Structures are given as C-alpha cells and as structure tokens.
Amino acid sequence: MKNKKRDFISIKDLTKEEIYEIFKLAESLKAKRSANNSLSGKTLALIFQKPSNRTRVSFEVGMNQLGGNAVYLGPHEMELGVRESIRDAAKVLSRYIDGLVARTYKHQDIIDLAKSATVPVINGLSDLLHPCQGLSDLFTIKEKFKKLDSVKFVFIGDGNNVLHSLMHGAAIMGLDMTVVTPKGHGPKAEIVDEAKALSKRSGSSITLCNKPDEAIKGADIIYTDVWISMGQEQERERKIKDFNGFQVNKELLAKAKKDCVIMHCMPAHRNEEITDDVIDGPNSIVLDQAENRLHVQKAILHLLLR
Ligand code: CP
Ligand code: NVA
User: Fold this and answer.
1) Residue 79 has what pLDDT?
2) pLDDT at 1
3) pLDDT at residue 3, as a whole number
4) Residue of the nearest CA to atom 2 in ligand 2?
5) CATH number of 133-289
6) Domain boundaries, the chain
7) CA–CA distance from 237 to each of 73, 227, 269, 301 (Å)?
8) For position 80, what pLDDT does the model report?
9) Cα 166 to the chain's mean position, in Å?
10) Same fold, 11-130+293-305 and 133-289
11) Running along the chain, 306 residues long, what does each successive block of 10 average in pLDDT?
12) Which residues contact 145 (CB under 8 A, 6 or more apart)?
C-alpha cells in the first residue's frame, strides 16, 4: 500500500503557511540552480488534452533537474475517458508512475483522476483553474515587491481559469485585488464566494468592477490573460466585441502609476488583450513569471512526490 497521497488541484486547498513553505523551497532551488537527486527513480506522467509550452516544458525539465523522469501523454496517446474510463486509466497509471499532471478541458476530469489515482495529481490547467500558474505568479510578486500583504493587484480581462486561481491565491495571501471584466465575462460566482470568504480571513479585499480606467488607479500590478482561451475559438467574434475597451495598452497605462508592474501568464495574443509595447516594455515581468513556473513547480514536485 502506498502512503496517503496529496494532490494539488486548487490553491484554495493550501494554507498561507504551506504556500510560504513552497516559496521558501522554490527560492532556494532557484538560488542553487544546480540539479539534485531528490526525485531520483521517480517518474511523472503528463496527460495533456490541450497544447502547452510553459507547463509541459517546466514540469519535464523540473523532473529532470530533480533526478527523475517525465512521460508526456498528448491528446492522441491516452484519449483520456475515450479509450478507457478515467478511473481505469488512473488506476493503471498509478502502478507505473509516482505522480501525474493533467491538463484537461473539464475540471471534473481532474477531480475524477485524483479520486482514482493512488499517486498525487497536479492540475496543469482546466476550464476552471490554473493553480500552478497562480501560485508561481504569487511567488513572482513576492520576489518583486518583497511582500504580498496589501499589494494592489488589478486583473483586467476574462473571468476564466487563470483569474480564478489568482483570486484564490490573492485572497489567502492578503493582496488587495480588483477584478475588471466586461459585463457577462466575470469570474464564476462560486469562485467569487470562495475568494471573499478567504479574504475575510486574511483581512484583504476582493472588488469586482467593469471600468478599467477607475480600477487601475493606485495599482501596483496590472495582470491580463487572453480573451479567447484554448477551446473557446468559436466564441472569438463575440468576445472581441465584448472586450472592446479592455486592452492593456499605452493609453490605459498613462492613467496608472509609473512603476506599475505588468503581468501576463502567456501565451499572449499580442495586440488583442495586450499591445506589443506594453508586454515588451520596461514594466513587464512576463518572462520572470514564465521562468518561475519551473522553480515553483520543482518545489511542488519535491513536496508531493518525495
Ligand atoms: N501559462 C501557461 O500555462 O502556458 P502554457 O499553456 O504554454 O503551458
Ligand atoms: N486562459 C488561458 C490560459 C493559458 C495558460 C487558456 O485557458 O487558454
């Protein structure tokens, strides 16, 4: 029998103390850079139903740097839930591997995998959440501002997976968050309720609004994500219309603080949700965000798989 395993499906399953523990480890892994053998002999499976650059590569490289291996299972290899049930696939994989990362369309598929797998399951993005992104972004914010408490964090864009995980994380860690979306594209009500409950405990605030100009006043950070997420391509025409006025561009930034930091989870749809001059500009920290995925995920792997 394997020992009781722990999954990483949502940031809300972590406490503030656990998040600081992950950050401490990530910081030391980042400072050392060198490989170590803490996961020697361990194998991670990556079940991906959607494309990926950052998530896939950082997990594969991360396993390698910790002395382990990774097996990538793309959309046409496993056909999760098609060739065989998720339950059967999870039980069989658990006999071969020590952990798995899943990127799915349906969030429920990740929950079902975790229920049947006897090894830790990590959410590598679903239609509801992207906790690995949210957690490493908080790490990047801490690295930049030396604190998380009371940082003024404004998200402009679509109420989707990345935003949901950022809301959980901000609420737990005490950032003051303002979420600006067009009407009808806000975050899911269940996530808003969860984040508000968590923010009460940390003493921070979560505010929702529809006016980018007003929201960005006093912001330390402006964050955006694509308007058309993977799997939403058929909504493109309608969304482009609905998001008119929500682009992060020079005109908008002229109304923000001079040193306001720009964040984006990437991939960016350049000149759609964010202009070239802003994402490539001096205030952008998008490449630090991308790099930190590696360090934070190594810390997560270290804690879950050892
Ligand atoms: N940000 C992120 O998860 O990127 P990928 O889709 O390339 O993995
Ligand atoms: N919201 C985006 C995030 C990509 C990392 C998507 O789901 O496509």
Assistant:
1) 83
2) 46
3) 56
4) 229
5) 3.40.50.1370
6) 11-130+293-305, 133-289
7) 32, 11, 14, 40
8) 87
9) 7
10) yes
11) 81 97 97 89 97 98 97 91 93 97 98 98 98 98 96 98 98 98 98 97 96 96 98 97 98 96 98 98 98 98 94
12) 151, 220
Of 118, 28, 103, 109, which Cα lies nearest the Cα of 305? 118
Q: Which ligand is nearest to the CA of 289?
A: 1
Instruction: Looking at the CA of residue 162, tell me the nearest atom of ligand 2.
Output: 1
Query: For residue 103, what are its two tokens?
Result: 């990127």
Ligand 1: residue of 58, 101, 125, 288 to mutate (most ligand atoms within 8 A of CB) is 125
Looking up tokens 């006025």 gives: 245
What is the amino acid identity at position 202? S
> Starting at the edge strand that comes first in sequence, how are the strands of the sheet with 43-48 ordered?
69-73, 43-48, 99-103, 121-123
- Residue in 107, 130, 164, 295 annotated catalytic: 130
**Identified catalytic residue from 49, 65, 133, 289:** 133
What dihedral do alpha carbons 159, 162, 166, 167 form, nearest 10°?
Answer: 30
Q: What is the dotted CATH code of the domain comprising 11-130+293-305?
A: 3.40.50.1370
Give backbone dihedrals phi and psi of 57, rounded to 5 degrees, phi first.
-70, -40
Active site residue 132: no
